Amino acid sequence: MEKTNVSQPSEQYASFGLGRRNVFMWLASLFMLLSGALRIVYYSSPVEDAEGVWDEENDRLKALNEAAREISERTRRAGEEYERLTAESQKLLSIKQELGSRLKLLTEMQRDYEGYNLSVKQVLMEAERRGGAGVHGVVASILHAPQRLERALDMVLGGTLQNVVVDRDEDAKAMIEYLKRNRYGRATFLPISSIRGRTLDMGERRLLSMPGCVGLASEMVTYDPIYRGIVENLLGRTVIAEDLNSGIAIQRAGRYQFRLVTLDGDVMHSGGSMTGGSVQSRMTSLLSREREITESTENMKKLTEKLAQAQNQLKKGEEERAALKKERAQLFDDVHQQEIAVTRAEDHLARAREELNGHTGRAARVNEARAQLAEQKAEILSQLDALGQRRETTEDEGEALRKKAQALQTSLFAVSYTHLTLPTT
Predict the structure, then answer these.
(1) Maximum pairwise Cα distance, the chain
(2) pLDDT-above-90 percentage for the chain
(3) 35 to each of 24, 363, 418, how far by Cα in Å?
Protein backbone atom coordinates (compact mmCIF):
# COMPACT_ATOMS: atom_id res chain seq x y z
CA MET A 1 0.00 0.00 0.00
CA GLU A 2 1.07 3.62 -0.63
CA LYS A 3 2.33 5.51 2.37
CA THR A 4 1.43 9.14 3.25
CA ASN A 5 4.13 11.58 4.33
CA VAL A 6 2.98 13.76 7.26
CA SER A 7 5.87 16.10 8.09
CA GLN A 8 3.74 18.81 9.92
CA PRO A 9 0.48 18.41 11.99
CA SER A 10 -1.34 21.07 9.95
CA GLU A 11 -0.44 19.34 6.74
CA GLN A 12 -1.61 16.06 8.27
CA TYR A 13 -4.95 17.60 9.37
CA ALA A 14 -5.39 18.97 5.90
CA SER A 15 -4.76 15.56 4.45
CA PHE A 16 -7.56 14.21 6.64
CA GLY A 17 -10.01 16.97 5.61
CA LEU A 18 -9.80 18.81 8.98
CA GLY A 19 -8.69 22.23 7.77
CA ARG A 20 -11.02 25.08 7.05
CA ARG A 21 -14.08 22.92 7.40
CA ASN A 22 -12.94 22.01 10.92
CA VAL A 23 -12.50 25.68 11.89
CA PHE A 24 -15.90 26.56 10.45
CA MET A 25 -17.57 23.75 12.36
CA TRP A 26 -15.96 24.83 15.63
CA LEU A 27 -16.97 28.47 15.13
CA ALA A 28 -20.51 27.37 14.35
CA SER A 29 -20.57 25.24 17.49
CA LEU A 30 -19.33 28.18 19.58
CA PHE A 31 -22.06 30.40 18.12
CA MET A 32 -24.65 27.79 18.91
CA LEU A 33 -23.41 27.48 22.47
CA LEU A 34 -23.70 31.22 22.96
CA SER A 35 -27.16 31.15 21.40
CA GLY A 36 -28.18 28.37 23.76
CA ALA A 37 -27.00 30.43 26.72
CA LEU A 38 -29.07 33.35 25.44
CA ARG A 39 -32.00 30.97 25.05
CA ILE A 40 -31.79 30.13 28.78
CA VAL A 41 -31.77 33.84 29.56
CA TYR A 42 -34.77 34.20 27.21
CA TYR A 43 -36.66 31.55 29.15
CA SER A 44 -35.69 33.10 32.48
CA SER A 45 -37.19 36.53 31.63
CA PRO A 46 -40.85 35.32 31.33
CA VAL A 47 -40.53 33.67 34.75
CA GLU A 48 -39.38 36.92 36.30
CA ASP A 49 -42.18 38.79 34.54
CA ALA A 50 -44.73 36.21 35.72
CA GLU A 51 -43.43 36.46 39.26
CA GLY A 52 -43.79 40.26 39.14
CA VAL A 53 -47.36 39.97 37.85
CA TRP A 54 -48.21 37.41 40.54
CA ASP A 55 -46.77 39.67 43.27
CA GLU A 56 -48.81 42.63 42.01
CA GLU A 57 -52.04 40.61 41.77
CA ASN A 58 -51.48 39.05 45.19
CA ASP A 59 -50.80 42.45 46.79
CA ARG A 60 -54.00 43.80 45.26
CA LEU A 61 -55.92 40.78 46.58
CA LYS A 62 -54.55 41.42 50.08
CA ALA A 63 -55.58 45.09 49.85
CA LEU A 64 -59.08 44.12 48.68
CA ASN A 65 -59.44 41.56 51.47
CA GLU A 66 -58.43 44.19 54.02
CA ALA A 67 -60.93 46.65 52.55
CA ALA A 68 -63.61 43.94 52.63
CA ARG A 69 -62.89 43.25 56.31
CA GLU A 70 -63.12 46.95 57.12
CA ILE A 71 -66.40 47.40 55.25
CA SER A 72 -67.79 44.28 56.93
CA GLU A 73 -66.91 45.72 60.33
CA ARG A 74 -68.49 49.05 59.43
CA THR A 75 -71.59 47.24 58.21
CA ARG A 76 -71.77 45.28 61.46
CA ARG A 77 -71.52 48.44 63.55
CA ALA A 78 -74.10 50.17 61.35
CA GLY A 79 -76.41 47.19 61.86
CA GLU A 80 -76.02 47.37 65.63
CA GLU A 81 -76.67 51.12 65.58
CA TYR A 82 -79.74 50.55 63.41
CA GLU A 83 -81.09 47.97 65.84
CA ARG A 84 -80.47 50.36 68.75
CA LEU A 85 -82.27 53.18 66.96
CA THR A 86 -85.13 50.84 66.07
CA ALA A 87 -85.52 49.78 69.69
CA GLU A 88 -85.34 53.40 70.84
CA SER A 89 -87.97 54.47 68.29
CA GLN A 90 -90.27 51.64 69.30
CA LYS A 91 -89.86 52.53 72.96
CA LEU A 92 -90.58 56.21 72.33
CA LEU A 93 -93.59 55.29 70.19
CA SER A 94 -94.93 53.05 72.96
CA ILE A 95 -94.47 55.80 75.58
CA LYS A 96 -96.11 58.33 73.26
CA GLN A 97 -99.11 56.07 72.68
CA GLU A 98 -99.50 55.43 76.39
CA LEU A 99 -99.16 59.12 77.23
CA GLY A 100 -101.53 60.04 74.43
CA SER A 101 -104.17 57.68 75.78
CA ARG A 102 -103.80 59.16 79.26
CA LEU A 103 -103.95 62.72 77.96
CA LYS A 104 -107.02 61.93 75.89
CA LEU A 105 -108.76 60.49 78.96
CA LEU A 106 -107.88 63.50 81.12
CA THR A 107 -108.92 65.93 78.40
CA GLU A 108 -112.26 64.19 77.98
CA MET A 109 -112.79 64.23 81.74
CA GLN A 110 -112.01 67.93 81.82
CA ARG A 111 -114.21 68.63 78.81
CA ASP A 112 -117.13 66.71 80.32
CA TYR A 113 -116.44 68.13 83.80
CA GLU A 114 -116.21 64.64 85.18
CA GLY A 115 -115.74 64.65 88.96
CA TYR A 116 -117.61 67.94 89.43
CA ASN A 117 -120.84 68.35 91.34
CA LEU A 118 -123.93 68.51 89.12
CA SER A 119 -124.63 72.14 89.99
CA VAL A 120 -121.04 73.22 89.25
CA LYS A 121 -121.02 71.23 86.02
CA GLN A 122 -124.28 72.92 84.88
CA VAL A 123 -122.94 76.38 85.73
CA LEU A 124 -119.76 75.79 83.70
CA MET A 125 -121.69 74.40 80.74
CA GLU A 126 -124.12 77.32 80.80
CA ALA A 127 -121.20 79.76 80.93
CA GLU A 128 -119.79 78.16 77.77
CA ARG A 129 -123.14 78.57 76.04
CA ARG A 130 -123.28 82.24 77.06
CA GLY A 131 -119.74 82.91 75.88
CA GLY A 132 -118.25 83.12 79.38
CA ALA A 133 -120.85 85.17 81.28
CA GLY A 134 -118.13 86.41 83.64
CA VAL A 135 -117.28 82.85 84.78
CA HIS A 136 -113.51 82.06 85.02
CA GLY A 137 -113.80 78.46 86.18
CA VAL A 138 -113.41 76.67 89.49
CA VAL A 139 -110.68 77.20 92.09
CA ALA A 140 -108.93 73.99 91.00
CA SER A 141 -108.44 75.46 87.51
CA ILE A 142 -106.81 78.73 88.63
CA LEU A 143 -104.23 77.14 90.99
CA HIS A 144 -101.07 75.36 89.95
CA ALA A 145 -99.29 73.49 92.72
CA PRO A 146 -96.18 71.26 92.83
CA GLN A 147 -97.04 67.58 92.84
CA ARG A 148 -95.54 67.27 96.35
CA LEU A 149 -98.23 69.64 97.74
CA GLU A 150 -101.25 68.30 95.86
CA ARG A 151 -102.52 66.02 98.61
CA ALA A 152 -102.14 68.69 101.30
CA LEU A 153 -104.03 71.30 99.25
CA ASP A 154 -106.62 68.78 98.15
CA MET A 155 -107.35 67.89 101.78
CA VAL A 156 -107.28 71.42 103.17
CA LEU A 157 -109.46 72.93 100.44
CA GLY A 158 -111.78 69.98 99.91
CA GLY A 159 -115.03 71.12 98.28
CA THR A 160 -113.65 74.65 97.95
CA LEU A 161 -111.77 73.45 94.88
CA GLN A 162 -115.17 73.42 93.09
CA ASN A 163 -116.10 76.97 94.09
CA VAL A 164 -116.83 78.98 90.97
CA VAL A 165 -114.73 82.07 90.34
CA VAL A 166 -116.63 84.95 88.68
CA ASP A 167 -115.89 88.57 87.86
CA ARG A 168 -118.63 90.32 89.88
CA ASP A 169 -121.42 89.72 92.34
CA GLU A 170 -123.93 90.19 89.49
CA ASP A 171 -122.37 87.29 87.58
CA ALA A 172 -122.75 85.09 90.64
CA LYS A 173 -126.37 86.24 91.03
CA ALA A 174 -127.19 85.37 87.43
CA MET A 175 -125.86 81.83 87.80
CA ILE A 176 -127.63 81.31 91.11
CA GLU A 177 -130.93 82.24 89.43
CA TYR A 178 -130.11 79.80 86.61
CA LEU A 179 -129.62 76.99 89.15
CA LYS A 180 -132.88 77.86 90.87
CA ARG A 181 -134.91 77.92 87.65
CA ASN A 182 -133.66 74.54 86.55
CA ARG A 183 -133.45 72.98 90.01
CA TYR A 184 -129.81 71.97 89.46
CA GLY A 185 -128.83 72.42 93.09
CA ARG A 186 -126.50 74.85 94.82
CA ALA A 187 -122.99 76.15 94.17
CA THR A 188 -120.56 78.56 95.84
CA PHE A 189 -119.30 81.57 93.90
CA LEU A 190 -116.19 83.69 94.52
CA PRO A 191 -116.49 87.16 92.93
CA ILE A 192 -113.08 88.64 92.16
CA SER A 193 -114.41 92.15 92.77
CA SER A 194 -115.42 91.47 96.37
CA ILE A 195 -113.15 88.74 97.77
CA ARG A 196 -110.31 90.09 99.91
CA GLY A 197 -107.23 88.20 100.92
CA ARG A 198 -106.01 87.39 104.44
CA THR A 199 -102.41 86.55 105.36
CA LEU A 200 -100.20 86.00 108.39
CA ASP A 201 -99.04 89.03 110.34
CA MET A 202 -95.35 89.70 110.99
CA GLY A 203 -95.31 87.83 114.30
CA GLU A 204 -96.96 84.77 112.79
CA ARG A 205 -94.60 84.77 109.78
CA ARG A 206 -91.66 84.18 112.14
CA LEU A 207 -93.09 80.72 112.77
CA LEU A 208 -92.40 79.79 109.14
CA SER A 209 -88.74 79.29 110.09
CA MET A 210 -89.53 76.60 112.65
CA PRO A 211 -88.26 73.03 112.06
CA GLY A 212 -90.56 71.00 109.84
CA CYS A 213 -92.33 74.01 108.35
CA VAL A 214 -92.60 73.79 104.56
CA GLY A 215 -94.03 77.27 104.01
CA LEU A 216 -97.16 79.34 103.54
CA ALA A 217 -99.63 77.69 101.16
CA SER A 218 -100.54 80.87 99.24
CA GLU A 219 -96.85 81.47 98.51
CA MET A 220 -96.18 77.92 97.30
CA VAL A 221 -98.71 77.86 94.48
CA THR A 222 -98.69 79.76 91.20
CA TYR A 223 -101.63 81.67 89.72
CA ASP A 224 -102.55 84.68 87.61
CA PRO A 225 -102.17 87.90 89.64
CA ILE A 226 -105.83 88.66 88.99
CA TYR A 227 -106.70 85.85 91.40
CA ARG A 228 -104.44 87.01 94.22
CA GLY A 229 -107.31 88.10 96.50
CA ILE A 230 -109.06 84.76 96.11
CA VAL A 231 -105.88 82.69 96.62
CA GLU A 232 -104.87 84.64 99.72
CA ASN A 233 -108.44 84.43 101.04
CA LEU A 234 -108.32 80.64 100.74
CA LEU A 235 -104.65 79.89 101.54
CA GLY A 236 -103.14 83.10 102.96
CA ARG A 237 -103.47 81.79 106.52
CA THR A 238 -102.69 78.13 105.80
CA VAL A 239 -99.28 76.80 106.81
CA ILE A 240 -97.88 73.55 105.36
CA ALA A 241 -95.80 71.29 107.64
CA GLU A 242 -93.92 68.10 106.92
CA ASP A 243 -95.78 66.00 109.50
CA LEU A 244 -98.07 66.20 112.55
CA ASN A 245 -95.21 66.39 115.07
CA SER A 246 -93.89 69.50 113.38
CA GLY A 247 -97.44 70.82 112.90
CA ILE A 248 -98.34 70.51 116.57
CA ALA A 249 -95.22 72.42 117.60
CA ILE A 250 -95.93 75.16 115.06
CA GLN A 251 -99.60 75.47 116.05
CA ARG A 252 -98.77 75.69 119.74
CA ALA A 253 -96.26 78.41 119.04
CA GLY A 254 -98.90 80.27 117.01
CA ARG A 255 -101.64 79.77 119.62
CA TYR A 256 -103.83 78.03 117.02
CA GLN A 257 -104.55 81.30 115.22
CA PHE A 258 -104.20 79.91 111.67
CA ARG A 259 -104.82 76.69 109.78
CA LEU A 260 -102.12 74.04 109.20
CA VAL A 261 -101.97 71.03 106.91
CA THR A 262 -99.32 68.31 106.64
CA LEU A 263 -97.95 66.83 103.45
CA ASP A 264 -99.98 63.68 104.20
CA GLY A 265 -103.19 65.74 104.29
CA ASP A 266 -103.83 65.91 108.05
CA VAL A 267 -105.45 69.28 108.93
CA MET A 268 -105.16 71.33 112.14
CA HIS A 269 -107.82 74.03 112.09
CA SER A 270 -107.60 77.42 113.75
CA GLY A 271 -108.99 77.03 117.24
CA GLY A 272 -107.35 73.61 117.71
CA SER A 273 -109.59 71.06 115.98
CA MET A 274 -107.88 68.39 113.85
CA THR A 275 -108.93 66.29 110.85
CA GLY A 276 -106.94 63.32 109.62
CA GLY A 277 -106.70 59.62 108.92
CA SER A 278 -106.47 57.47 105.82
CA VAL A 279 -107.30 58.80 102.39
CA GLN A 280 -109.10 56.75 99.77
CA SER A 281 -107.08 56.44 96.59
CA ARG A 282 -108.77 58.17 93.69
CA MET A 283 -107.81 58.00 90.06
CA THR A 284 -107.10 61.72 89.96
CA SER A 285 -108.01 64.85 91.88
CA LEU A 286 -109.08 68.12 90.35
CA LEU A 287 -105.71 69.71 91.19
CA SER A 288 -103.63 66.83 89.86
CA ARG A 289 -105.80 66.62 86.73
CA GLU A 290 -104.93 70.18 85.75
CA ARG A 291 -101.25 69.59 86.44
CA GLU A 292 -101.18 66.24 84.67
CA ILE A 293 -102.87 67.65 81.58
CA THR A 294 -100.33 70.49 81.43
CA GLU A 295 -97.36 68.19 82.01
CA SER A 296 -98.67 65.53 79.63
CA THR A 297 -99.19 68.12 76.91
CA GLU A 298 -95.61 69.37 77.31
CA ASN A 299 -94.24 65.83 77.48
CA MET A 300 -96.25 64.85 74.40
CA LYS A 301 -94.70 67.73 72.47
CA LYS A 302 -91.19 66.75 73.60
CA LEU A 303 -91.83 63.09 72.84
CA THR A 304 -93.14 63.93 69.38
CA GLU A 305 -89.98 65.94 68.61
CA LYS A 306 -87.72 63.27 70.06
CA LEU A 307 -89.53 60.52 68.14
CA ALA A 308 -89.23 62.52 64.92
CA GLN A 309 -85.49 62.89 65.51
CA ALA A 310 -85.13 59.17 66.29
CA GLN A 311 -87.07 58.21 63.16
CA ASN A 312 -84.96 60.61 61.10
CA GLN A 313 -81.80 59.02 62.50
CA LEU A 314 -83.31 55.61 61.84
CA LYS A 315 -83.94 56.56 58.21
CA LYS A 316 -80.38 57.83 57.83
CA GLY A 317 -79.09 54.67 59.52
CA GLU A 318 -81.05 52.50 57.11
CA GLU A 319 -79.70 54.46 54.14
CA GLU A 320 -76.15 54.20 55.48
CA ARG A 321 -76.51 50.48 56.12
CA ALA A 322 -77.92 49.92 52.62
CA ALA A 323 -75.02 51.88 51.10
CA LEU A 324 -72.51 49.88 53.14
CA LYS A 325 -74.12 46.61 52.10
CA LYS A 326 -73.93 47.67 48.46
CA GLU A 327 -70.29 48.67 48.85
CA ARG A 328 -69.53 45.43 50.66
CA ALA A 329 -71.17 43.37 47.90
CA GLN A 330 -69.10 45.20 45.27
CA LEU A 331 -65.92 44.59 47.29
CA PHE A 332 -66.76 40.91 47.68
CA ASP A 333 -67.23 40.71 43.90
CA ASP A 334 -63.90 42.52 43.40
CA VAL A 335 -62.22 40.06 45.77
CA HIS A 336 -63.68 37.14 43.81
CA GLN A 337 -62.50 38.59 40.50
CA GLN A 338 -59.08 39.27 41.99
CA GLU A 339 -58.85 35.71 43.29
CA ILE A 340 -59.44 34.59 39.70
CA ALA A 341 -56.71 36.99 38.53
CA VAL A 342 -54.29 35.61 41.15
CA THR A 343 -55.09 32.05 40.12
CA ARG A 344 -54.50 32.99 36.49
CA ALA A 345 -51.18 34.61 37.42
CA GLU A 346 -50.20 31.50 39.43
CA ASP A 347 -50.99 29.27 36.45
CA HIS A 348 -48.98 31.51 34.12
CA LEU A 349 -46.05 31.52 36.55
CA ALA A 350 -46.20 27.72 36.90
CA ARG A 351 -46.15 27.28 33.12
CA ALA A 352 -43.21 29.68 32.76
CA ARG A 353 -41.27 27.84 35.47
CA GLU A 354 -42.14 24.51 33.88
CA GLU A 355 -40.85 25.70 30.49
CA LEU A 356 -37.68 27.07 32.07
CA ASN A 357 -37.07 23.87 34.04
CA GLY A 358 -37.72 21.76 30.93
CA HIS A 359 -35.38 23.81 28.78
CA THR A 360 -32.69 23.86 31.48
CA GLY A 361 -32.95 20.07 31.78
CA ARG A 362 -32.70 19.56 28.01
CA ALA A 363 -29.80 21.99 27.85
CA ALA A 364 -28.02 20.05 30.58
CA ARG A 365 -28.48 16.79 28.66
CA VAL A 366 -27.24 18.39 25.45
CA ASN A 367 -24.22 19.82 27.24
CA GLU A 368 -23.47 16.41 28.69
CA ALA A 369 -23.66 14.81 25.23
CA ARG A 370 -21.52 17.57 23.74
CA ALA A 371 -18.90 17.05 26.46
CA GLN A 372 -18.80 13.35 25.68
CA LEU A 373 -18.38 14.03 21.95
CA ALA A 374 -15.68 16.62 22.70
CA GLU A 375 -13.78 14.00 24.70
CA GLN A 376 -14.05 11.56 21.81
CA LYS A 377 -12.89 14.22 19.38
CA ALA A 378 -9.93 15.08 21.60
CA GLU A 379 -9.03 11.40 21.67
CA ILE A 380 -9.12 11.17 17.86
CA LEU A 381 -7.10 14.34 17.51
CA SER A 382 -4.60 12.83 19.87
CA GLN A 383 -4.47 9.74 17.69
CA LEU A 384 -3.98 11.97 14.64
CA ASP A 385 -1.10 13.70 16.36
CA ALA A 386 0.44 10.35 17.11
CA LEU A 387 -0.11 9.32 13.53
CA GLY A 388 1.57 12.45 12.29
CA GLN A 389 4.74 11.49 14.15
CA ARG A 390 5.02 8.44 12.06
CA ARG A 391 6.75 8.89 8.75
CA GLU A 392 4.78 6.25 7.18
CA THR A 393 1.23 5.12 7.59
CA THR A 394 -1.21 3.35 5.54
CA GLU A 395 -3.77 5.18 3.50
CA ASP A 396 -6.51 3.05 4.98
CA GLU A 397 -5.65 4.09 8.55
CA GLY A 398 -5.58 7.77 7.55
CA GLU A 399 -8.91 7.52 5.75
CA ALA A 400 -10.55 5.79 8.71
CA LEU A 401 -9.33 8.40 11.18
CA ARG A 402 -10.40 11.20 8.85
CA LYS A 403 -13.94 9.84 8.55
CA LYS A 404 -14.19 9.30 12.28
CA ALA A 405 -13.02 12.86 13.07
CA GLN A 406 -15.45 14.31 10.57
CA ALA A 407 -18.28 12.20 12.01
CA LEU A 408 -17.51 13.40 15.55
CA GLN A 409 -17.30 17.00 14.36
CA THR A 410 -20.67 16.63 12.64
CA SER A 411 -22.17 15.09 15.78
CA LEU A 412 -20.75 17.92 17.92
CA PHE A 413 -22.26 20.47 15.51
CA ALA A 414 -25.60 18.63 15.58
CA VAL A 415 -25.65 18.62 19.39
CA SER A 416 -24.92 22.37 19.45
CA TYR A 417 -27.66 22.94 16.87
CA THR A 418 -30.07 20.91 19.01
CA HIS A 419 -29.24 23.15 21.97
CA LEU A 420 -29.96 26.19 19.81
CA THR A 421 -33.33 24.94 18.55
CA LEU A 422 -34.88 23.74 21.84
CA PRO A 423 -38.71 23.93 21.79
CA THR A 424 -40.23 27.25 22.93
CA THR A 425 -43.64 25.90 23.87
Answers:
(1) 179
(2) 36
(3) 16, 12, 11
